[in-house]
Amino acid sequence: MTIDVKAPPAAKAIDWVRRTHDLGPKIATRAAQADETDAFVAENLALLKAEGFHTAAVPAELGGGGASHAELAAMLRTLAGYCGSTALALAMHTHAVALPAWRWRRTPEAVEGLLKRVVAEGLTLVSSGGSDWLDGSCRATPVEGGFRVSGRKVFASGCQSGDLLVTMAVLDAPEGPTVLHLAIPMRAEGVKVLDTWRTLGMRGTGSHDLELTEVFVPDAAVTVRRPQGKWHPLMHMVSLIAFPLIMSVYVGLAEAAAEKAVDLATARKPSPDTELLVGEMETHLTAARLALGDMLACAASDEPGPAATSRIMTGRTLVARAAIATVEKAMEAAGGAGFYRKTGLERIWRDVQAARYHPLQEKPQARLAGRLALGLPIDG
């Protein structure tokens, strides 16, 4: 007798965009207050964590949300329409999880432990790669069983509610300055959050400086060693996976600004000038969307390496330019009403300026693209 054995039902896919919209109004109510008082959006991030967003990037096989890279980008883009600071702070944790999730499909043994901890312990990851980048920062001094790390990290978004700092330190090795990639518990002895985050925009991200004083890091916490200032496969992976997620936030801000501007413009008497401004705004917004789409397509199809990194970083520049230009035109199209805080446009204008400061910034990005086009080594 033949017995039909049915496979267990597949886990139901989660609609992360819909879930973001469900929570969005509650998140938006706190946005203005956080911005005006330089307050960290801790409540918003706690709400998102309670709803499973902090494990969205973890593969479903490991107990996470199983969101694809494109789904994560759409989630963050949607969230930015409600609160830019909340979206950017979540993006910094999300990309730090999405990278080991991407690696898990290729070398699971290297990253599975971390991904399981994110689920089991509810870890929030804090990164400092944007300020460290190829050169790294802080000094690592060898001691028995590991290293003592001292120095200062900047732009540590979400550090006030973070659990694990994934960062870098520079070791003076016989072969030359070497950057160590390592993980440090935020509550480790010698880790101090400095109250430094007083900024033009993205005020709620809590991107304070961190002061590390003789923090012990065991050998086992060092995941990668690479020459200082040189491109390494890990940095190509970071470029491929992290930056489409980060830049999704700025496209979301541009979309929110355009929507507000249209609402304000339609409440006034129509004029040819308004029509022109709205048309210019929509053109810039389309450019931002197209550039982000190409970044996501690159992440979906290309392998990490110089060509993919240049494509991603070119997209980063184009998204930043177009998102900022969109919001500029939105301010013009909205007229005087856009100057009032209550419309939310001026906050978006301030928040979108942060797009300028993520690596690679425009000049280094253009130089990378130029060297690649000329057939020169990218480490020049």
List keywords for this structure.
380 residues; 51% helix; 8-stranded mixed β-sheet; 15% strand; 8 strands; globular; alpha+beta
Q: How would you describe this structure to a colleague?
A:
The chain has 380 residues and is of the alpha+beta class. The protein is 51% helix and 15% strand. The chain has 11 helices and 8 strands. Strands 1, 2, 3, 4, 5, 6, 7 and 8 form an 8-stranded mixed β-sheet that branches. A hairpin with a 2-residue loop joins strand 2 (139-143) and strand 3. The radius of gyration is 22 Å and the shape is globular.
Question: How is this structure best summarized?
Answer:
By secondary structure, this protein is of the alpha+beta class.
Query: What is the overall silhouette?
Result: globular
What's the story with the biggest beta sheet? Answer: 8 strands, mixed
Q: How many helices in DSSP terms? A: 11
Given helix and strand content, the structural type is alpha+beta
Q: What is the residue-mean pLDDT, rounded to a whole number?
A: 95
Cα(first) to Cα(last) distance is 71 Å
Which H/E pattern describes the elements?
Answer: HHHHHEHEEEEEEEHHHHH
Q: Percent of residues in helical segments? A: 40-55%
Say how many strands there are: 8
Radius of gyration: 22 Å
SSE arrangement:
Elements (H helix, E strand, L loop, with lengths): L15 H22 L4 H9 L18 H12 L3 H21 L3 H13 L4 E3 L1 H4 L6 E5 L2 E8 L10 E10 L2 E10 L5 E4 L14 E10 L3 E6 L5 H34 L5 H30 L4 H29 L10 H8 L9 H12 L7
Helix pairs in contact: 1-2, 1-3, 3-4, 3-7, 4-5, 4-7, 7-8, 7-9, 7-10, 8-9, 9-10, 9-11
